[in-house]
Amino acid sequence: MKAIILTISLIFPLFVGTQIQSQMVVPNLSASNPPLPSLMATEQEVRQFFDKYIERYNKKDIDAFLWLFSLKAIQNQQNGLPEIREIYSNFFNQSRELRYLLEDPKIEIYQNAVEVKARYVIDQIPEEGRQKKVWRGSVRWVLIKENGALKILSVDYQHQKTP
Question: How far is it, in rounded angstroms, from Cα 127 to Cα 45?
């Protein structure tokens, strides 16, 4: 009987000590969780980016417009920055006036990128003697940060042209 009481008196403090230690560990672990990384941009920053995009597009300012693109940018899964420059330069040069409208943009902001999906309408008023064209379609951009600024990493679009 003395052996049983001695065994219990030796084991019981171990359980009590374990309980106290485990209760202390939980708050310490929860207090040491690192904060979640912040998102790459705010919705306001993304909207301001697209205000610049549309303004520069409508002004047909190719250099300022392309400044919004990453050096690694691709368009429609194939064209790199030199081809993107050529495509937009040709389109801007064929246009007396452009009006770009972005409809119902859906903005998803992540820790390392921003994805924007929308519908667009472009009114192209060509050089003299040509008929106005309207381009409509869907577009998806992926934006990243380079040197602290939002840049287009990729843009994919589909369009229809109306006469």
Answer: 35
Query: What is the block-wise mean pLDDT of the chain (163 residues), using blocks of 10 residues?
Result: 47 47 48 68 96 98 97 92 95 95 96 96 86 94 95 93 65
Residue 27 forms beta bridges with which residues? none
What does the block give as tokens for 152? Answer: 């287009």
Question: Which residue in 43, 65, 45 sits closest to 54, CA to CA?
Answer: 65
- Over its C-alpha atoms, the chain yields an Rg (Å, rounded) of 29
93-130 CB burial, b ≥16 within 10 A, e <16: eebeebebebeeeebebeeeebebebebebebeeeeee
Q: How far apart are CA 65 and CA 124, in angstroms?
A: 17
Environment class of residue 38 by beta-carbon count within 10 Å: exposed (0-12), middle (13-18) or buried (19+)? Answer: exposed
Of the candidates 152, 5, 4, 9, the one whose C-alpha atom is nearest the C-alpha of residue 81 is 152
Pick from 163, 75, 159, 154: nearest CA to 121: 159
CB 50 within 8 A of CB 102: yes
